[in-house]
Amino acid sequence: MVRRIALVVAAGTLAVAGAASAKTESHSVDVTLSTPTVVGGQRIPAGDYRLSWAGDSSPVHVSIEEGSRVVATVDAKVEPREPSPDEELISRTLKDGSRALEEVRPAHHKTALVFPIS
Length: 118
Fold this sequence. Notes:
Layout (H helix, E strand, L loop, with lengths): L1 H20 L4 E8 L3 E3 L2 E3 L2 E8 L5 E7 L2 E12 L7 E6 L5 E7 L5 E4 L4
Parallel strand pairs: 2-8
Antiparallel strand pairs: 1-4, 2-3, 4-5, 5-6, 6-9, 7-8, 8-9
């Protein structure tokens, strides 16, 4: 009987340890948009923002925050890239003249956030 209880406690401890190690890593990067920019189909005014997401596999949900306020939530793909020493924002001018953010490459990361262009 004592042996059976010890096995149940050991199994429970392993299950908790496994769940803790499976925790998804959170990421964030601060960006400055110098002009109004379309990000994942949503128009974001010029300003300073924090982009936050969890995980390293696609798709991810990216929160665009201005201070403590979430101004938009968009989906993005996570794709491999060569690490860069600085943050890089890659954008494109659309046919209507507006700017659309295509990629965010966080400094020293081996991945980039890739946003759909609509």
